[in-house]
Each structure stands twice: as C-alpha cells, then as structure tokens.
Amino acid sequence: MKELQSLPKPTDKSEEQLGAELQQAENEQKTLTAQRAAKEESLDNYDMLIDKRVCPTCERPIEDPSVYMEKRNRMRQDVNTLLDKEGKTEGCKLAASKPGLFSGR
Ligand SMILES: [Zn+2]
To answer: Which of 2, 25, 32, 41 could form a disulfide with 93 if both were Cys (CB 3.0 to 4.6 A apart)?
Structure first.
C-alpha cells in the first residue's frame, strides 16, 4: 500500500467515523420518512375535508372547507420540506459509504 500514499486521500475520516456517519444518516432518514408518512396522512385528510366536504373521521358534511385550506397548504409545505431533508440524508449516506466519490477537491 506504500505506493498509494502519494495519491490524494479521498477523506481524512476513519472507517469507524464513516460507519457512524452512515448509521446516523440512516437513522435520520428513517425518522424523516416516518414524519413524512404521518404528515401525508394528515394531508390526505385535509384533501378529503376540502375536496369532498366530508369529515374524514366522522363523515359529517363540512359547511365551510376554506378554513382548512391554509392548514392543508402548510401540511403540503411540511411534506415537501421533509422530502428535501430526506434527499439530503441520502447524499450524506452516499458520502459516508463511498467517500472516494467525493475526492479530487
Ligand atoms: Zn368529524
């Protein structure tokens, strides 16, 4: 391996460090995915409230669904934000599992 020492190192991080980072990114991604699933369910409920004018739990008709529109928009933004974060953890996972890809700086 001595002849490789002159090549640029892909990363200064040790195997254990990269392993820990990969684990952390995976855990974070799992949490984010669970959060997004819950919010997507709420979003579905708001869609039902607004589009069908029916309460998703008791199925009673909704007189004025417009009050839920702001909540639905916020929920949709939350889902998009979580999707974005999930995408970033994917990048972290890649960086930790294949550090060579990010060499050559
Ligand atoms: Zn209800």
So the answer is: 25
